[in-house]
Amino acid sequence: MSEKNLIDKIFKLCFLGFFLLIFARGTALAITFPIPSLELNVTTATQPEEVAVVLEIIALLTLIALAPAILILMTPFTRLVVVFHLLRQALGTQSSPPNQVIVGLALFMTFFIIKPVALDVYNQSLNPYLERKISYETAFEEAQKPIRKFLLRNTREKDIALFLKEAEMKKPETRQDLSLLVLIPAYVISELKTAFIVGFVLYIPFLVIDMVVASVLLAMGMMMLPPVMISLPFKLMLFVLVDGWHLICGSLIKSFGV
Q: Of 5, 24, 113, 218, which has the most beta carbons under 10 Å away?
């Protein structure tokens, strides 16, 4: 049997099996598959540990639901993705690199930058709690310390003062006493400001190239030729010659003190 006939026969068998699964239910030709059942019961707990396990599951599900917001608001992801987006706009490449590549690169760089903080949270809070060495309240307090330290290192005092004033809270005695309710939004607007500053600096050399190309085309009388079409290869060449991705990624990582 030739390879073509074999492939054709396999395709026909798969096609026939597909329709048998759809139309032969309830007949002798029907194929039955075991479907697991799921039951939810509300019973009286006999030991406190049973309630604790349920609460842990609820807390875990809540954490999973809030994971995107935590990733965006408490990690370097915001600064990275905004800078990469502004870089793409400055280059004028429109949809290249695509959004999936930009978000993926920002995501993995976020994991790289936040790894020391995550390890501190695991060693000081999560691991002792899982080993039943500390209580839930103690674990929560210990988990805040490395996170608060990271946020404070990358947050401007002016932004912290803004949210302290709007929340009508008393000024804490030390920076470590700041509430995350105040620190997180202050960190976000600080990150946005920093990202826009970096984006402005990235725009300048590419803007100069656009102005030079537009002036040359105007002097040559080629007013109908779009300057962006001519300047794009020069901007790409400049970006590649200076090893732009290496410089930008390295500078962003160093800006977080890693």
A: 113
